[in-house]
Task: inverse folding
């Protein structure tokens, strides 16, 4: 049971092992540094049930070097991974992305279960290329992808002044991109989710 910011941060050590975590109270990151849980080399397959509690005042700082490997609070969620029943409040993302996917909450969703999440915050985003969303950089359309009852709201301050690449810059409220890599025409569950 996670009850402190330090314990929440420790998920980084167990996220690829299929552990079960739950929040035991609200978690306040005011004046506490946070390290993102991983990159596109890291698959999240553990389970986190927030039990309706709130994670608040977390600041996510992503440098161009970090962004080159994809980042978010969570890395890529794949089959077996679960994040549910959590409110994220006053989450600030300072992201300098030069060409891959980044999300404020998830680097990407490629399977797994993500449901009953509420995210409010602000993003200060510099981007020359790549994909970015409040919820996720990419959502891959697979039969085992379940995204349900997700709300994101807040402000994106976009500085694309050095966007000189031929690679598109995709910025979205929920996701920078929804894609079917394998062109399987899968039918994932995407329901009751929106951004303001």
Result:
């Amino acid at each position: 049971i996670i009850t402190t910011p330090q314990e929440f941060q420790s998920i980084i050590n167990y996220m690829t092992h299929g552990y079960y975590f739950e929040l035991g109270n609200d978690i306040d990151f005011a004046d506490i540094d946070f390290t993102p849980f991983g990159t596109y080399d890291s698959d999240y397959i553990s389970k986190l049930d927030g039990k309706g509690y709130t994670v608040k005042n977390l600041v996510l700082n992503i440098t161009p070097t970090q962004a080159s490997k994809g980042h978010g609070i969570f890395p890529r969620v794949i089959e077996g991974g679960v994040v549910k029943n959590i409110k994220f409040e006053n989450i600030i993302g300072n992201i300098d992305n030069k060409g891959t996917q980044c999300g404020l909450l998830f680097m990407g969703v490629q399977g797994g279960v993500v449901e009953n999440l509420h995210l409010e915050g602000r993003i200060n985003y510099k981007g020359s290329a790549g994909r970015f969303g409040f919820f996720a950089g990419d959502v891959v359309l697979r039969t085992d992808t379940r995204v349900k009852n997700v709300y994101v709201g807040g402000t994106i301050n976009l500085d694309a002044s050095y966007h000189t690449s031929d690679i598109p810059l995709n910025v979205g409220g929920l996701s920078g991109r929804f894609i079917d890599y394998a062109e399987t025409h899968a039918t994932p569950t995407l329901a009751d989710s929106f951004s303001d």
The mean pLDDT is 82. The chain has two helices and 18 strands. Residues 2 and 45 are 17 Å apart (CA to CA).
